[in-house]
Amino acid sequence: MKTISSEIVEKTWKEVATTPIQEAFQLAKRLHEQQPSVSVYLLGVGGDNLNRDERELLFYLGVVVWQIMLQGDIPLNKITDKMLDEAEELNMKMLEYLEDESEEDFIKTAEIIIKNYNQPNVLKYVVEALMEEHEEDCIIRDENKGIM
After folding, report:
1. Maximum mean pLDDT: which of 32-36, 118-122, 128-132
2. How many whole angstroms separate alpha carbon 16 and alpha carbon 31?
């Protein structure tokens, strides 16, 4: 798949962000119909470790990324539970590795990961969305951003 441009990422993100609530429910329903494993995963990941605001943000980001990926040059494959489990296992190994690095090494490693990621503009959007300041009544804990 060709790299999705930052323009498409931003345009899609803005479209989803301004979607009226009724249409947002329909969008979530379409995600569940087209990618049921992804939908169930996003709704259940983190269990009791994530609070409601964190789960909502994670689901929202999942919907945005799904919409962005639909803009790519090839149709999306249906994601299976097995694929999600394998990806989660790799991500957890990477987080464990990064946990033991100094702050300087962590930043260098993160830059390498982002630079070599097959969809760097999408990853950049997700990281920026997680790191941005959220509304005062929205509680996104720093210690959960890496997991999210």
Report:
1. 32-36
2. 13
Assess if residue 18 is contained within a domain: yes
Six-digit token string for 121: 């503009």
Expressed as residue numbers, the domain containing 64 is: 6-145
Residue-by-residue DSSP string for 60-126: HHHHHHHHHHTTSSSPPPPPPHHHHHHHHHHHHHHHHHHHTS-HHHHHHHHHHHHHH-SSHHHHHHH
| pLDDT for residue 63 | 96
User: Would you say residue 137 has pLDDT above 80?
Assistant: no
When divided into structural domains, the chain yields a total of 1
Q: Does residue 1 fall inside a structural domain?
A: no
Mean pLDDT, the chain, rounded, equals 89
- Is 13 among the domain residues? yes
